[in-house]
Design brief:
single chain, disordered C terminus, 4-stranded antiparallel beta sheet, alpha+beta
């Protein structure tokens, strides 16, 4: 335990010992604290981080030395100020003038010129930068002012970074400046050399380079003996950066015994640095430990001797040293986990593994007097993976460990009766229940782990408590036995005063429950249910998620759960969906408990007929969710349900699809209630006394009444069997067969026989049907199957383009086909994670074809519009220029080394020929060249994608709120804006910056709302994936994907065009913005594809309405009309989109937080649309009644 009162001067004890030895002591400055004022010349940049510490403890001589330097600088500045008052300031606007000003005799002019050059360094060319570097190197030898010399060293550092200059010469010049008397200059020299090495500007190949490195070694070792702490700290930082250079340059070690070494091994460097962990100055000790950590990060394996150094750092008086010591101990425990360490005060029986000893010592740091150290220690405890269970269990117990007790004192077997009687007299009886800590059988070191997490959870600072909870969660994820001990303590943290701590405890217990079973007794459940009344919505929803993973120990727990949920729904109606999802999971875990409560929940009595409940009652809906989900493990529950419950099931399942189970999940023993469920689902159960049955009876001899009973009893089984997928067959083999059929598609695409395109489209349709089956059945390969299905859609569009390219309808269909191909390829490129570079090239290859087809459609539209020849020529050249750029960019991607060159070789040649044809058409845009260019369409062959080796994740989202409210639309004021809360879950998202809520208003007016970053919360990281080998393999970058929850509100203004009294539908969709290949051009095409999709949806809805009246006779004519109207609709949309229209009144209904730049972004839908109905009230409605 550290002492409770911390010394205000952490280094005071060590400074007094140094002064007593006479090292650098001064009678005039003993015990004084001196704060050094910054030099006005050095006000350009702050000092390095290592020199800006909280405590400014300096010896008398050091303070006096800095004061002398300060007086010199201030005197020089005063002289310059006097000269400046006599003459007006002269501005030096040009770079050449600044160079000339560096030769000025006035210090102030030189300083201003250096500062101006530093500020304008980014504007200088490489030659001017090299010139400035040479001038600065020469001025280092002639400049007499210390502040100006420091500024020159800054210039050397900045110019080396900004130019391609070699760093060996400047380093040699800087080493010569170490002879200066100024501490500030020497510190800056060491810092600049460290930075030069860090940016890899110091060569290490030639003999001259090695000699420069040797000079660095000699100067560094000599600098460690300097008595100023800033110099020793800067040298330690230099050594940490210089060590990798020594390793790469292979500087030989000198065999001389008299001179200094010319090279040092890793062990030598670590020993040199570790010697300064006991330095009298705390900042030097901190930088020595930091240098050891830097060596580890740069690939040096720290020696086992550093463990004793780290242990020594844990007892330091300076908190920064203890923090660095904690990190060093944790690193060494990972390098040497099974190394045996010996307790210096114990015997051989007290030896233990290093990882266990490190865990105990970090546990002891939980009792530190400084909050930062305690929080850091708690955070490190969760990172241990191989600690013994006996040590882990002690973190929740305040009793001293008994397993390592050893009687350290040998027994005196030769003692006589008198001696034994004297020993007994000296013994003092220990009270019952207490530990005799003075006894020789107790080793106090083992008490470090005792109650570490208990102390952390009871800490007064929320940072420590939160870090302790996080570490407990991490340890439980890898130690299921430890989770049994941790549950009770985590449940107690539900009652913490800080909402963030409560939320952390809830989410941590939820993570533990997903890995190991958790059972709550009555007391623990009551504490958890009490959190449902929390005022924070995030805490309440975290409680819902936590209740999903726990198991109740007694039947009374289910009763208490239902009472708390009913109270929660009445008080917080906005939590309805979250509560329903919680009830769904609880029902699936507690089938027997729910069976007992069914009559009470549905108010059933055997003596009376059941009364049908209100289907819109929230509590009744929750009861049905609980019952039907509990029927999955316990199908006997369905026998107790009245018939109306099955009708309500079908309605509520459509309303809350994520809460009710699918029919395929419920077992089917063939009981009467299950037949009622089948009737509600299919409405196809055979009914008695029907006309069909009478006809069958008249046609055949004998009665059909007996088969009728069998058909009625098996109706549910027949219905479910038709819906259930045969998952028993080998889905892996089936998936391989589908991929083999896709290989046949590529073979057919290269043929040019008769009817090969018809055969190709048949094969594509068959593969798409099988891939759709795999998507619904095989969860492991569902993502790859979806990607393969999109790829086949692109292939099908390619075949359609080639089939119609020689027909008269091609010009009209070209914009539609190319727009769909654009949109689909962008979905493949930006809607999936895990595409390798070759797959990206294959997807971009489709966009080259789409661009070419779009070009011909736009050219024909331009010529039909009556444009002049000159305008048509300019338009052709602008369109061709964009197409050429796309081909060039794709060829550049093909040249990357990560792309499989063998797979793309054939297509590379085709792209080269296409680019040549485009250049000819661009230089001479005649009709003949355009026709020749059109011939390249039939040469396109789909580029193969190795789907077998792709590990894909699809970016998906679900909208939780708002929900469809067709029956009860929201009534809004005719003129005032209203708020719509939006909530959703997004999976496999790396960055939420481009996620938007798309709102589609009547008339297909689309607006996007981009929520701020704080409206997104991380639910979990994507670590529990179906395939374990998906560890960023083939990912676009190393940024991990996560699951996010969006919770925001959108302000919408009613529009007069909506009318009054009639429900208006607003469609909400979660979208994700992306950067297209050609900004502006591709955005226009993607918006055109959205317009086509919306137009087709409206026409299909109209056809459905007509089909309900006209029957099957109008079905074929409706399809023909739909196909006939596509080209005319596309033409009208192109005309409307080509000319920007003035903003209509509908555009104002998107909300005031939207910008025009955001509205024009390209987006991809990542969720299904949710329709929300609003009803605009009539103006002055209800006013007459009031009057």
């Amino acid at each position: 335990m550290k002492r409770a009162i911390q010394d205000p001067n952490p280094a005071g004890g060590r400074d007094k010992q140094a002064r007593n030895k006479g090292e650098g002591s001064s009678s005039s400055g003993i015990g004084s604290h001196t704060t050094v004022q910054p030099n006005p010349v050095l006000s350009l940049r702050p000092l390095p981080q290592d020199t800006r510490d909280q405590d400014t403890v300096m010896d008398g001589d050091e303070a006096a030395m800095d004061d002398d330097e300060q007086m010199d600088s201030e005197a020089a500045m005063d002289e310059d100020d006097d000269e400046e008052e006599e003459s007006d300031e002269e501005d030096i606007p040009t770079v050449e003038g600044l160079f000339k000003a560096l030769d000025s005799k006035r210090l102030q002019t030189r300083v201003r010129a250096l500062k101006a050059l530093l500020n304008r360094l980014s504007e200088l060319s490489n030659d001017d930068g090299l010139r400035l570097l040479e001038i600065a190197r020469k001025k280092l030898y002639t400049e007499s002012n210390k502040g100006a010399k420091v500024l020159l060293i800054h210039v050397v550092q900045a110019t080396l970074e900004a130019t391609d200059a070699d760093g060996r010469g400047p380093v040699e010049d800087l080493l010569n400046q170490l002879q200066a008397d100024s501490t500030e200059v020497r510190v800056q020299v060491y810092g600049t050399i460290s930075y030069i090495i860090k940016i890899d500007k110091l060569p290490r190949q030639s003999l001259s380079d090695i000699n420069t490195i040797r000079g660095l070694i000699t100067s560094s070792i000599a600098g460690l003996k300097d008595r100023h702490h800033r110099i020793r700290s800067a040298v330690l930082q230099l050594i940490s950066h210089l060590a990798p250079v020594l390793k790469v340059a292979k500087v030989p070690t000198s065999q001389s015994t008299t001179g200094p070494k010319a090279g040092y091994s890793q062990h030598d460097i670590q020993v040199i640095v570790s010697n300064y962990v006991t330095d009298p100055e705390p900042r030097v000790r901190k930088n020595a430990l930091k240098a050891l950590l830097d060596l580890h990060r740069q690939g040096f394996k720290l020696g086992l001797l550093m463990y004793d150094v780290a242990i020594l750092a844990l007892d330091d008086d300076y908190q920064e040293v203890r923090l660095q010591g904690l990190e060093l101990i944790f690193i060494l425990s990972g390098i040497y986990p099974n190394q045996t360490v010996q307790n210096p005060h114990g015997t051989a029986l007290q030896a233990l593994r290093l990882v266990d000893d490190a865990f105990v010592r970090i546990c002891d740091a939980v009792n530190d007097s400084v909050m930062l150290v305690r929080a850091k220690a708690c955070s490190y405890l969760g990172k241990f993976r191989s600690v013994g269970y006996n040590f882990l269990s002690q973190t929740f117990s305040k009793q001293i460990m008994a397993r390592l007790k050893v009687d350290a004192a040998p027994k005196n077997l030769a003692a006589g009766p008198a001696q034994k009687l004297a020993q007994k007299a000296k013994l003092i009886a220990t009270p019952e229940g207490d530990q005799d800590v003075t006894a020789q059988t107790v080793k106090l070191l083992d008490s470090g782990a005792c109650g570490a997490f208990v102390h952390g959870l009871e800490d007064e600072f929320q940072e420590v408590r939160s870090a302790a909870i996080t570490s407990i969660c991490e340890l439980c994820m890898h130690n299921p036995e430890f989770s049994l001990l941790a549950v009770d303590y985590l449940v107690d943290m539900f009652m913490d005063d800080i909402d963030h701590v409560r939320l952390n405890a809830l989410t941590s217990l939820c993570k533990i429950g997903n890995k190991a079973p958790i059972t709550f007794d009555t007391e623990q459940l009551q504490i958890a249910l009490g959190v449902l009344e929390d005022a924070d919505k995030d805490v309440r929803e975290a409680t819902h998620r936590m209740l999903e993973v726990i198991t109740m120990a007694a039947q009374d727990g289910m009763t208490s759960f239902l009472e708390s949920v009913a109270s929660n729904m009445r008080r917080f109606s906005e939590d309805q969906l979250s509560i329903y999802q919680c009830i769904r999971a609880v029902g699936r875990r507690h089938g027997p408990f729910v069976e007992v409560l069914v009559p009470e929940m549905l108010h059933l009595d055997k003596m009376f007929l059941p009364i049908e409940e209100n289907v819109e009652d929230m509590l009744y809906g929750g009861h049905l969710i609980l019952i039907f989900n509990a029927a999955i493990p316990n199908p006997v529950i369905l026998k107790q349900l009245p018939k109306y419950a099955f009708k309500h099931y079908t309605y509520l399942r459509d309303k809350y699809p994520n809460c009710f189970p699918e029919p395929t999940e419920i077992p089917c023993p063939g009981t009467q209630p299950l037949r009622d469920l089948a009737a509600a689902l299919t409405m196809t159960i055979v009914k008695p006394n029907t006309s069909d049955m009478d006809v069958d009876t008249s046609r055949h001899k004998g009665s059909r009444r007996a088969p009728q009973s069998a058909a009625s009893s098996s109706a549910y089984e027949t219905t479910i069997a038709a819906m259930r997928v045969q998952t028993e067959e080998d889905a892996e083999t089936f998936y391989e067969n589908v991929l083999h059929n896709m290989d046949r598609i590529h073979l057919l695409a290269r043929q040019h026989g008769p009817n090969y395109r018809a055969m190709l489209r048949q094969q594509i349709a068959a593969c798409q049907r099988d891939l759709h089956y795999i998507t619904n059945v095989h969860a492991k390969q569902a993502r790859s199957a979806e990607f393969a299905s999109m790829y086949l859609n692109c292939c099908d569009l390619l075949v359609q383009i080639q089939d119609t390219c020689n027909s008269p309808s091609f010009i009209m269909m070209a914009p539609i086909l190319s727009a769909h191909l654009f949109r689909l390829s962008y979905y493949m490129d930006h809607g999936f994670l895990g595409l390798d570079p070759t797959a990206k090239v294959s997807v971009g290859y489709f966009r080259v074809l789409a661009n070419l087809v779009w070009f011909f459609g736009m050219v024909q539209k331009r010529s039909d519009g009556g444009s002049s020849l000159s305008m048509t020529k300019e338009y052709l050249q602008s369109m061709l220029q964009l197409a050429i750029k796309r081909v060039s960019d794709l060829q550049f991607q093909m040249d990357q080394p990560e792309v499989d060159q063998e797979r793309i070789q054939r297509h590379r040649i085709m792209l080269g020929d296409l680019r040549v044809a485009m250049l000819k058409a661009f230089n001479s845009p005649t009709t003949m060249e355009i026709i020749k260019l059109m011939g390249n369409i039939v040469k396109f062959v789909p580029m193969e994608i190795d789907i077998r080796h792709l590990r894909l994740q699809r970016i998906t989202a679900d909208i939780i709120r708002p929900t469809m409210n067709r029956d009860v639309p929201l009534e809004v004021h005719p003129t005032f804006p209203f708020m719509v809360p939006v909530e959703g879950i997004m999976r496999h998202v790396r960055d939420t910056q481009g996620v938007a809520v798309q709102v589609t208003f009547p008339g297909n007016v689309v607006r996007y709302y981009y929520p701020p970053a704080d409206h997104f919360t991380v639910v979990e990281d994507d670590v529990d994936r179906d395939d374990d080998d998906l560890e960023n393999e083939g990912m676009d970058d190393l940024v991990p994907s996560r699951t996010y929850r969006l919770r925001t509100s959108i302000e919408i203004f009613p529009d007069v065009a909506w009318g009054t009294g009639t429900p208006t539908d607003l469609r909400f969709t979660l979208t994700r913005a992306f950067q297209p290949d050609l900004v502006g051009h591709d955005e226009f095409i993607c918006r055109f594809a959205e317009e086509i999709t919306f137009q087709n949806r409206q026409q299909e809805q109209a056809q459905l309405l007509q089909g309900g009246i006209g029957g099957s006779r109008s079905g074929s004519s409706g399809s023909n009309a739909l196909a006939a109207n596509m080209s005319s609709a596309a033409s009208s949309m192109l005309s409307r989109m080509a000319t920007p229209a003035a903003p209509s009144s509908s555009s104002a209904s998107s909300g005031s937080s939207l910008s025009s730049s955001q509205q024009n972004q390209s987006t991809l839908e990542i969720s299904k649309s949710t329709t929300y109905y609003v009803s605009r009230k009539a103006p002055f409605e209800g006013l007459g009644t009031t009057l």
